[in-house]
Design goal:
Blueprint (H helix, E strand, L loop, with lengths): L6 E3 L4 H11 L3 E4 L5 H6 L7 E4 L9 E4 L2 E5 L4 H6 L1 H6 L1 H6 L6 H6 L2 H6 L7 H7 L3 E5 L3 E5 H4 E3 L2 E2 L6 E8 L5 E8 L9 E9 L5 E9 L6 E2 L1 H7 L6 H13 L11 H25 L1
Parallel strand pairs: 1-3, 2-3
Antiparallel strand pairs: 4-5, 5-10, 6-7, 6-10, 8-9, 11-12, 12-13, 13-14
Helix pairs in contact: 10-11, 11-12
Length: about 290
């Protein structure tokens, strides 16, 4: 299908982009990678009179560590993350996930900022950012930060105002004895997840779990943070019984919808299985650090 008519704007600076968003208000939408937005427009699931393309704005594409924080520019392509030695060596949860996102064509164009800011519960990065305890930097009338687990309000509904642009993602550098993992079930290359689980854990000196975060993809109208399951793990040895109980608790928090990919019961069961697998992998990685 052909999208409804719109005016296309290509600002050269962040200030220009913000002025355009302020000028056109509810009629404007930011275009970054476009891998989620453009199909939506073509299917006429949404329409905007003005698209503000931020691809030519310099300084929004980077991966760097500063003072105990990993900083990723919102316009960083998924393919850039996939090739990053820093990501591969220190952030295995991201290294797990990025090759599973869509296909190489999409990863070459799609941006991490677009993935997390779109509010699509089928996108992979939001759950990962929640598991990593990430914070989003948002620019509008002034700069502000929003915790990833406070950002998602509903289906395609986020804490991002129409006149704001997400510019950076900040992830605290994991302490020693930390490990993360992302496990995903999808029917074919390029498909959204039937279910997926993001896990980040830190082990104490005695091998018990000191802290944990668990979040699920495509398990509801927003990414689902399994807070109770993470609390249950804290202070316990990560044996099979403990992991299985935590996985069961995480799956119980999910509320997927039935579709061609499976029934509600099937998706909940896959959330449980994938959470257990991610926990085992994350614990193994943490023990090796």
């Amino acid at each position: 299908m052909i999208p409804a008519a719109f005016d296309y704007h290509r600002p050269g600076t962040l200030d220009e982009a913000l002025k355009l968003l302020k000028q056109h208000g509810e009629d404007a939408k930011v275009l970054s990678g476009g891998m989620s937005l453009l199909p939506m427009l073509k299917l006429r699931l949404g329409s905007f009179a003005h698209l503000v393309d931020i691809n030519r704005i310099p300084g929004l594409d980077y991966i760097k560590e500063e003072k105990g924080t990993l900083k990723i520019g919102a316009m960083t392509r998924q393919a850039t993350l996939e090739r990053s030695d820093l990501i591969k060596s220190k952030y295995p949860i991201l290294a797990d996930a990025v090759p599973l996102i869509a296909d190489p064509l999409v990863r070459n164009r799609g941006t991490i900022g677009g993935n997390v800011a779109n509010g699509d519960p089928g996108n992979d990065q939001p759950a990962i950012m929640i598991a990593l305890g990430a914070t989003y930097v948002v620019q509008g009338g002034k700069e502000r930060t929003v915790a990833a687990n406070q950002f998602y309000k509903g289906l395609y509904d986020t804490a991002l105002a129409r006149n704001e642009i997400l510019t950076e993602i900040r992830i605290p550098t994991p302490p020693a004895k930390s490990g993360g993992a992302y496990t995903k079930l999808k029917r074919k290359t390029g498909d959204f997840a039937v279910a997926a689980a993001a896990v980040q854990v830190t082990l104490g000196k005695n091998g018990a779990i000191e802290s944990a975060r668990i979040a699920l993809t495509n398990a509801g109208l927003t990414p689902v943070e399994a807070v109770d399951a993470a609390k249950y793990l804290t202070g316990k040895m990560p044996d099979d019984k403990t992991i299985m109980e935590a996985a069961k608790m995480a799956a119980a928090k999910s509320s997927p919808s039935a579709d061609r990919k499976g029934s509600v019961e099937y998706k909940k069961e896959m959330a449980r299985v994938l959470t257990a697998r991610a926990l085992k992998k994350a614990v193994q990685r943490a023990g090796a650090n």
